[in-house]
Amino acid sequence: MRSASPFPSRGSPRSWRDKSWSRCACLLKRSAISYVRLRTPRGCERQPATPFIVPVSLEGVPAVTSPIVASERHRVTKITITPIAFRDLPLLNTVGVHETFALRAIVEIETDSGFTGLGETYGDAPHIARLRMVARDLVGVDIFNVSEMRRRIILALRADTTVGGHGMSGMVTGSSTPDRVLSPFDVAALDIQGKVVGRPVSDLLGGAVRSEIAFSGYLFYKWAGHPGQDEDSWDAALDTAGIVAQAQRMVADFGFTALKLKGGVFTPEEEIDAVLGLRKAFPNHPLRLDPNGAWTVDTSINVGQVLDGVLEYLEDPTPGITGMAAVRREVPMPLATNMCVVSFDDVAPAVREGAVDVILSDHHFWGGLRRSQALAGITETFGLGLSMHSNSHLGISLAAMVHLAAATPNLDYACDTHWPWKDTDQDVIVPGVLSFHQGAVAVPTTPGLGVELDRDALARLHEQYLKCGLLNRDDTGYMQSLQPEYELLSPRW
Ligand code: GKR
Ligand code: MG
């Protein structure tokens, strides 16, 4: 039976709870937030000029349903959501090209017991609006009760009328909105829980089964620099020689022992050639190719057959579960996805149709770290492999990814990361904790996530956000502003 509440409460009657919440929401609505108008390619849009802070006030906040006595709770008193932008490079993909800045949102939670926790998520305006909408309702929750946070998020999102804001420029749109919104709060809650009990997040997730996490070197076709700007520190990579040279530098600098090529940019023949070039240059590295669904079923089958014995897995060659299943019947290598299985609802049809061999988890859209572990249990049950997807991200997310991978035994593929594409001065954490040795990051062993916020850096990147004029990731729009004839096609070949 489905009641008005997603998780029927045994606590105080709903009417009382609702009344005090609306009183609380009214108070919060009156809190001062200043706005600036930003010029964007789509005209002028209104945007808060300051980080959004939920004021400290527990007055009128209803009791949580947790049976833990009040003195042992660590209740959320304040949530700060700070949109930030960090410099990005002109990385090409099948929907366009990365813009000059990548957007993220940093979530800070504070408790009445003096603990603070960090989360990181997408910075698209509709997503930030949703974070702000739910943050109000999380004040007062015991930080150990993430189930209660999730319940309140689901309820709060019933009022959500925004669209889009998936943070992936249209490449992943079917993920669950409540799970995407929950994710940074779940991570920040775990960060605090770890600090309270004096243990790293990996311990809270069941314990680390590995002390370092291997990542794959994520190769992109790219321009030498953003048009109209100086060239960046990475050369152009627009053919096989460029991709092989990029891989050589990435392996030399970071020690990666697996490589992934972001495809869907040039013709399948050119991308096959690039993969064969990589195989020649790196005879022992597992190789992956990911065109983000740019190919028809027939093209995917041709590519898969040509690359027999070369790829560790072929990622999202074609769109959709049914298309992937048709490809999988005809190609020899495992098929992986972060596009056709992006929420719990997708798992059953994908298994039923035999669409994939490997699911790429991503705690940013699978509901945080514990729900990503629920996915891990499902993949184990169905004999599927588990890997990890990434998008442009900063250190808080990297720490979360590392703890998750450490404590998830069957997450044993080298994980994806966009880390090498970020300049070292473009992060919000105090440097030093997360570094790559032989393609892997050591799992932090200090309490919580093990990373610390650099407030000056946060302010600097927030300032960049306000100045850059971007409110949503839009790889296609940016490409079309540079090459008006560019068309978004799916599939493209
Ligand atoms: O950063 O351009 C990119 C990637 O294409 C990214 O957005 C994808 O979501 O890396 C991702 C993937 O594996 O599909
Ligand atoms: Mg992918």
TrEMBL record:
EC code: 4.2.1.40
SMART domains the record matches: MR_MLE
Requisite cofactors: Mg(2+)
UniProt keyword Lyase present: yes
Catalytic activity entry: D-glucarate = 5-dehydro-4-deoxy-D-glucarate + H2O
Domain of life the protein comes from: Bacteria
UniProt keyword annotations, A-Z: Lyase, Magnesium, Metal-binding
Top enzyme class: lyase
This protein's pathway: Carbohydrate acid metabolism; D-glucarate degradation; 2,5-dioxopentanoate from D-glucarate: step 1/2
Active-site residues (renumbered): K262 (proton acceptor), H389 (proton acceptor)
Coiled coil: none
Mandelate racemase/muconate lactonizing enzyme C-terminal domain sequence ranges: 241-334
GO molecular function: glucarate dehydratase activity; metal ion binding
SUPFAM superfamilies hit by this protein: Enolase C-terminal domain-like, Enolase N-terminal domain-like
InterPro entries from the UniProt entry: DgoD-like (IPR034593), Enolase-like_C_sf (IPR036849), Enolase-like_N (IPR029017), Enolase_C-like (IPR029065), GlucD-like (IPR034598), Mandelate_racemase_C (IPR013342), Mandelate_racemase_N_dom (IPR013341)
One Pfam family from the record: MR_MLE_N
Stated family: Belongs to the mandelate racemase/muconate lactonizing enzyme family. GlucD subfamily.
Protein name per the record: glucarate dehydratase
